[in-house]
């Protein structure tokens, strides 16, 4: 799984409302590990809760298909960018959301687009 993150950093600016990440709140909801360039300063050792791929493997795969999981996460990212009025990011994320489930299926010389 590859998550189509646009690196807006908005999820890391809202940790105050997430119980598992509250300890990282700098007092205004922003994670103390978020860098000036909107990246995670502890990316390699970031909390399990921040790792979208591991969260799926360990927790959500028992409840959701990978496509559904990606879509639901993307819906949060889209909403955060809508609220921040970052329309370029929102459009990119909406396109990624619409593309999930499209699989290029090759049989011999033929390519078929499948949608779930
Ligand atoms: S809000 Fe979504 S797109 Fe933006 S950094 Fe977080 S995971 Fe990536
Ligand atoms: S630890 Fe890193 S990925 Fe997790 S909220 Fe903070 S900056 Fe974001």
Explain briefly what this protein structure is.
This protein has helices at residues 52-58, 66-83, 87-99, and strands at residues 103-107, 110-114. It has 116 residues and is of the alpha+beta class. It has one domain (11-114).
Annotate the secondary structure layout.
Layout (H helix, E strand, L loop, with lengths): L51 H7 L7 H18 L3 H13 L3 E5 L2 E5 L2
Antiparallel strand pairs: 1-2
The structure holds iron/sulfur cluster (SF4) (2 copies).
List keywords for this structure.
single chain; 116 residues; alpha+beta; binds iron/sulfur cluster; 2 strands; disordered C terminus; 9% strand
Attached small molecules: iron/sulfur cluster
- Residue-averaged pLDDT, rounded? 88
Number of helices, where a helix is a run of at least 4 consecutive DSSP H or I residues: 3
**Could you give the distance between the termini?**
16 Å
What shape does the CA trace take?
A: globular
State the share of residues found in helices, binned by percent. 25-40%
What's the arrangement of strands in the largest beta sheet? 1-2
Any idea how many domains? 1
Class by helix and strand content?
alpha+beta
* Largest pleated sheet: 2 strands, antiparallel
Order of helices and strands: HHHEE
Number of strands: 2
The proportion of strand residues reads: 5-15%
Radius of gyration: 16 Å
- Low-pLDDT parts are 104-116
